[in-house]
Write a structure and sequence with these properties.
alpha+beta; Nucleoside Triphosphate Pyrophosphohydrolase; seven-stranded mixed sheet
Length: 233
């Protein structure tokens, strides 16, 4: 039984990054919202769907000590490399992100894919095929946080990514774990998950295998909490 999530600011997933809260923000509206990408690399395992995760070190100034998916913010180099990104059906991406902020940027979806490829290779050593990345969700950090991100989540089948391994200093461990196992450990207090991570894993727990995930008809409604949050208080 997966627990129900409580309202914003009261659930333990909202307090999972309490260590990264930092000083009070004098002008919350002035905190820039930076575009970022996160990739859920999935494979079929003996205990059901598995995902590649990283356990962030406790000294990080953002999301300290929590379980995350590989990814990171968009860098200038991604805008340059995006010119080489090709996929069989660009409409899949333009349609998926049509309600997201990235739609305001010409060819912004290519930048997201370039970021995904770069970040995953830097953090895991695995080289992704952009055409295998399927848009899945878009979450924006609530106002009132010292750091805010407009994060675009992708799912991809990782059967061929046997080379994925731990190679980032931002985490102390990277590993494949069953989706159900992560949720169970979170319920027992053994693992910390931020709200987007918890919600996405809870969604994935309803799928039997990777094929079902990739075959899902996904309509992405960006999650944009637009009120001051008391997360971590």
């Amino acid at each position: 039984m997966i627990r129900d999530i409580n309202p914003e600011g009261s659930d333990r997933s909202d307090m999972a990054d309490a260590a990264s809260r930092g000083p009070d923000v004098t002008d919350p509206e002035a905190v820039p919202v930076r575009p970022a990408v996160s990739v859920l690399m999935l494979r079929d395992g003996a205990e059901g769907l598995e995902v590649f995760v990283q356990h962030r070190v406790s000294t990080m100034d953002f999301a300290a000590g929590v379980v995350v998916f590989p990814g990171g913010r968009v860098d200038p180099v991604d805008r340059e490399s995006s010119r080489t990104i090709t996929v069989s059906d660009p409409h899949v991406h333009t349609s998926a992100w049509s309600q997201s902020t990235i739609a305001e940027e010409a060819e912004g979806w290519r930048v997201l894919l370039a970021t995904a490829v770069r970040e995953v290779e830097e953090e895991t050593g695995a080289v992704l095929d952009p055409s295998g990345l399927a848009p899945w969700a878009n979450w924006v950090t609530p106002i009132g946080r010292p750091k805010r991100f407009d994060t675009y989540f992708y799912v991809t089948a990782a059967h061929e990514l046997a080379t994925a391994h731990h190679q980032t200093t931002e985490a102390h461990t990277s590993e494949w774990l069953p989706v159900a196992g992560i949720l169970e450990s979170e319920g027992q207090g053994a693992l910390k998950l931020m709200r987007p991570t918890f919600v996405l894993l809870r969604e994935l727990s309803g799928f039997a295998n990777v094929a079902e995930v990739l075959g899902a008809q996904r309509v992405i409604d960006p999650v944009r909490p637009d009120f001051p949050s008391n997360r971590g208080s």
